[in-house]
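thread from #wetlab-drylab

HS: before we spend reagent money on co-crystallization trials with flavin mononucleotide, can we at least see a predicted complex? here's what I'd submit
DV: go for it
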Amino acid sequence: MKKVVFLSVVALLVVIACGILCAQNEKTSPDALTVIHNRKSVRHFTGKSVSRDDLVTIVKAGMAAPTAVNMQPWSFVIVTDRPSLDILAKALPYAKMLDKANAAIIVCAIAEKAFQGKVEIAIIDSSCASENILIAVESLGLGAVWTGVYPDRERMDAVRKEFNIPEGIIPLNVIPIGYPTNEDKPKDKFKEENIHWEKW
Ligand SMILES: Cc1cc2nc3c(=O)[nH]c(=O)nc-3n(C[C@H](O)[C@H](O)[C@H](O)COP(=O)(O)O)c2cc1C
């Protein structure tokens, strides 16, 4: 009888431990489609600081993006310095959320490194990296938003000047990152009419 009770308790503990482990696993690694559909532009941040490890993880995800002929025509400027974030907030008309963000990534496109040296391809490749960054941010429980720099000449010049980015390099966007207040919600953008099966 004692043995049965003992084995039952052990079995119960194993079930509980598995449950906890599964729950933890779910928390740290939601599946890709869940992350994609939960991604949203986050413009409200709590002020809690983002770790250096997370920023490296995020940029690594950016570098995992596909590029034409695998040229990887990009560089990433990671900004965490408060005065620099404030300067960006002032320079960019639609990036005022930077005043509460704890970090930002400037995704830079490099035409001369792109397939056939084309600006368009550098921009496409760097846009792929930017989306990977936004997805990685969401998967880490952080928030971010793409704020536009390219193709606005004034904004590109302002960002280049402040961060010593050479003339030939294109600052594509500035992505403020921080812990979300959870005010920003994902939008349902599915539209059946935008799908064409087989032919337009
Ligand atoms: C090329 C591009 C430029 C954008 N520029 C800005 C911007 O300057 N400021 C901003 O707050 N959001 C900007 N956004 C974010 C869009 O407003 C946002 O993605 C769109 O409203 C859809 O919302 P969602 O990201 O929550 O799905 C930009 C997005 C893209 C792709």
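DV: Residues 158 and 164 are 10 Å apart (CA to CA).
HS: ok that's useful, forwarding to the group
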